[in-house]
Amino acid sequence: RCVPLDSDESNFRLVREQLLDHLVQQKRSIPADQVMVINDELIASPEDVAQDYLDKMQSVFAGSTKTKFPQFDLVLLGIGPDGHTCSLFPGHALLEERNSWVASIEDSPKEPPRRITLTMPVVNHADKVAFVVAGAGKSKTVRAILDEKDVHMPATFVKPVKGDVYWFLDDAAAKGLAENKPAEFKL
């Protein structure tokens, strides 16, 4: 989302508050240079934000991969009620992107309209992809993705080439799952 990093709409802020700050408290922090964030000074232009993010990615991954796409150790994702993930929305042209690593979007069907997103090939080249989903409002979507394999929901297309997908669901989000029975997870 092309918003200031301290905005209530910022995905980075949510990850920082819900994960990164807790790791620091437990003396298990992730080095700052291993967490990629947008340059919020560029948010007036999603294309500029996307190019800057791509530049950051290329500086890290250039020459380090034998494939056309970077290979993240972990991509942490959520889902929207419509099954979108990243800023890849049902029926949107960006779902068909096969070459770019990062893309800008100015017409998101969900607020805020200006965003950048990793493309599906980048997500699918990650070593591990973890979905973190909470709340009863997401249970129907989780069932559609995991049990029904609904091809209209972009999260269904997350299938790493050589990696694994993990789903971390609270009880409310997992309610009603048939095929995929959740197992308890403790840190």
Overview of the structural elements:
The chain is an alpha/beta fold and 187 residues long. Helices cover 25% and strands 13% of the residues. The strands form 2 sheets. Strands 1-4-5 form a 3-stranded parallel beta sheet. A two-stranded antiparallel ribbon has the order 2-3. Strand 4, helix 4 and strand 5 form a beta-alpha-beta unit. The radius of gyration is 16 Å and the shape is globular. The chain starts with 10 loop residues before the first helix and ends in a 13-residue tail after the last helix.
Described by strand count, sense and barrel closure, the largest sheet is: 3 strands, parallel
Number of helix segments? Answer: 5
What is the CA-CA span between the terminal residues? Answer: 29 Å
Are there runs of 5+ residues with pLDDT below 50, and where?
none
Care to count the β-strands?
Answer: 5
- If you average the pLDDT, what whole number results? 88
Lateral strand order in the biggest sheet: 1-4-5
What best-fitting shape do the alpha-carbon axes yield?
globular
